[in-house]
Specification:
The complex is a heterodimer. By secondary structure, chain A is an all-beta fold. Chain A contains no helices and eleven strands. Classes of the chains: A mainly beta, B mainly beta. At the A-B interface, strand 4, strand 5, strand 9 and strand 10 of A face strand 3 and strand 4 of B.
Chain lengths: 112, 111
């Protein structure tokens, strides 16, 4: 059964450093998403992406964040200059035929 | 998207049916009800969705009331692996359809 994969599973970085989180969505899906979940809090929407463009973004997704689909399979989330408060689980998702979303296992980002 | 209300927690004995309610009284005619669950810190998992008819798949059944103001997710024979937080989310399809997660219902399945 096809699934969404994410790498790395855990990323530790120092404050101010750039990080790139990688996702491989399900191959025939066209809509992709990033969500994050700070420990003990709700899952929060960050951004949706379709046809090589951002289709919607939340207030969290400021100029420090960017997304890209550099080739036909990968979907990346970049944080340019990480802050302590960026520490969270980051989930990638892709959307199926009936608008259901399939989530990856997540990347745990720890900013020190 | 319509707001949903779920009980914060429920318990269920293993092997019994787990019935998880959701209230979505402001749902509009073309909004769908989706259910997801999150087991510990794993990525959320899609379970089932519906518009107005009852739906069943290999994981669960979804019962939507005739007025569509509430729904119930049924796990027919709950197992310990079904212990998770269950989210009821109403979305309007045909858009980017982001998911807005609430606090959900924490289902604890016990022996």
């Amino acid at each position: 059964e096809p699934e969404v994969t994410q790498t790395p599973s855990h990323q530790v970085t120092q404050m101010g450093q750039e990080v790139i989180l990688r996702c491989v969505p399900i191959s025939n899906h066209l809509y992709f998403y990033w969500y994050r979940q700070i420990l003990g809090q709700k899952v929060e929407f960050l951004v949706s992406f379709y046809n090589n463009e951002i289709s919607e973004k939340s207030e969290i997704f400021d100029d420090q964040f960017s997304v890209e689909r550099p080739d036909g399979s990968n979907f990346t989330l970049k944080i340019r200059s990480t802050k302590l408060e960026d520490s969270a689980m980051y989930f990638c998702a892709s959307r199926g035929t009936y608008y259901e979303q399939y989530f990856g296992p997540g990347t745990r980002l720890t900013v020190t | 998207d319509a707001k949903t209300t779920q009980p914060p927690s429920m318990d269920c004995a293993e092997g019994r049916a787990a019935n998880l309610p959701c209230n979505h009284s402001t749902i509009s005619g073309n909004e769908y009800v989706y259910w997801y669950r999150q087991i510990h810190s794993q990525g959320p998992q899609y379970i089932i969705h519906g518009l107005k008819n009852n739906e069943t798949n290999e994981m669960a059944s979804l019962i939507i009331t005739e007025d569509r103001k509430s729904s119930t997710l049924i796990l027919p024979h709950a197992t310990l692996r079904d212990t998770a937080v269950y989210y009821c989310i109403v979305i309007l399809t045909g858009t980017a359809s982001k998911l807005t997660f609430g606090t959900g219902t924490r289902l604890q399945v016990t022996l």
